[in-house]
Amino acid sequence: MIVTLAQAANDDAAAAAGTQWWPGALVPIGVVVAALIAGYFGGRNARKTPHEKLAALADIYDKLGKRPDTFPTQFETLEAAIAHEVENIEKLRKAAEQGRIAYIEERFRLAFSADGALGSVLGAVVPAALATLLAVAVNAFLS
After folding, report:
1. Which helix (H) or strand (E) holds 64?
2. Residue 90 pLDDT > 60, yes or no?
3. Closest of 63, 87, 88, 85 to residue 74, by C-alpha
4. pTM over cut 0.70
């Protein structure tokens, strides 16, 4: 009887020790999720639409176009940037003609392309997430 009670107490202690790690992980996971959400909306609000970018580039082009001999390399770079934005607008227009889902997919593709803000969001969140997970793992191991 005493052995049975001792084994039951040992099993209860092992079960309790096995489930104690997750309450400590909820707060760091919540922080990481909140950071991802804030980073997504912050990047989305900071990004300009292709039309706004094109308008700004066209304004610079008009000012620079009055003297193209003074800035020949910048003039070529500006023309390439304008062509890129016109291409993005055309992609969005074609996607809108195909339907709402195609348009949303194209917006995401353009938003998370190489010149998008995904890198800045991941660069801010991934190190913090890894450090948090490491801290939780060490805390669980030492407990």
Report:
1. helix 50-65
2. yes
3. 63
4. no
